[in-house]
Amino acid sequence: MTDLDTPVLDNHLHLDPDNARGVEAAKDFARSGGTHLLVVNKPSWHLGVEPEAGDDFRAVFERTIEVVDRASEALDGTAWPVLGVHPGLVSRLVDEREFSPAAARDLMQAGIDVAAEYVADGPAVALKSGRPHYDVDDAVREASNAVMRHAFERGAAVDCAVQLHTEASEDLTEVAEWAADAGLARERVVKHYAAGRLAGPTPSVMSEKDRLEVAAESDAPFLMETDYVDDPDRPGAVMGPRTVPRRVRWLLEEGYDDAVRRAHVETPRRVYDLDTEATLDRA
After folding, report:
1. Torsion, Cα of 203, 208, 209, 213 (10° steps)
2. At what angle do helices 138-158 and 101-120 cross, to 10 degrees?
3. Which of 62, 86, 113, 121 could form a disulfide with 43 if both were Cys (CB 3.0 to 4.6 A apart)?
4. Domain boundaries, position 150
5. Domain for residue 204, yes or no?
């Protein structure tokens, strides 16, 4: 049982199965009071996969599932996989591998289809998609938006949330409307690396105190994350795995008990249909 006496979920981080800390990072999280993780697969090329077809992503997903299973053993709660295609792949395909934007779109959508199989059959609980956070030309942006909309369609079909990597914004109402048009509830669209307020999707707030204060003082659903990248060349980036438990402790000290429950119990249930209390071993 965590000394914080509450589930503590990091909504978005990466664990490298081969070349970095992997499960040791999950152990750091647990030692600091963390209980639950949503582990997003690393970009395919970071795991040595340069896909030609949708099935080529399976190696990325399988390796992620393996490290997530091992991470779960280190927690008093559970770790769950979030699988999908990093939106930055479009630039790698178009700029480095001479794919047309349409061909890149088709390959990335095929990867989303494969990820959705892991949700439909278990063990993944959500999909990952989005669009580049940097400037791209109109054709690439159109292709990226098409991939994201396809992820919403697949999310609706298999009844799961979709985590998004996008440009920085406090208003993604249009994107949330695309999800609703595809049959996916807006609250099941999650913007990773969010600020403290966001119109449209559910924000997964980077665990900086100023962002968290904004989120905590509102009544809106939110999640907390580190976007820990588990890269041996960038130790601790973006935030270290101990950060979310430490920020939860700080929020409780500041009197934000209701916000902690919102971020770590109510919003995970609302967005992912995950019960962080029932999956917490209180022995």
Report:
1. -10
2. 20
3. 86
4. 9-272
5. yes
| Surface-to-core class of residue 121, CB atoms within 10 Å of its CB (0-12 exposed, 13-18 middle, 19+ buried) | exposed
Is residue 1 assigned to a domain? no
| pLDDT tens over the chain, length 283 residues | 347 899 999 999 999 988 889 999 999 999 999 999 999 999 999 999 999 999 999 999 999 999 999 999 999 999 999 999 999 999 999 999 999 999 999 999 999 999 999 999 999 999 999 999 999 999 999 999 999 999 999 999 999 999 999 999 999 999 999 999 999 999 999 999 999 999 999 999 999 999 999 999 999 999 999 999 999 888 778 999 999 999 999 999 999 999 999 999 999 999 999 999 999 985 4
List CB contacts of 254: < 8 A, sequence separation 6 or more. 216
Q: In whole angstroms, what is the distance from residue 246 CA to residue 251 CA?
A: 9
User: Residue 161: inside a domain, yes or no?
Assistant: yes
Residues in the chain: 283
- For residue 176, being part of any structural domain is answered with yes
Tally the domains of the chain.
Answer: 1
What stretch of H or E contains 218? none
Closest alpha carbon to 192 in 41, 64, 36, 65: 41
Could you list the beta-strand ranges (E) of the chain.
Answer: 9-13, 36-40, 79-84, 126-130, 161-165, 189-194, 202-206, 223-225
CATH code for the domain in which residue 106 is found = 3.20.20.140
Let me know how many helices (H) and strands (E) the chain has, helices first.
10, 8
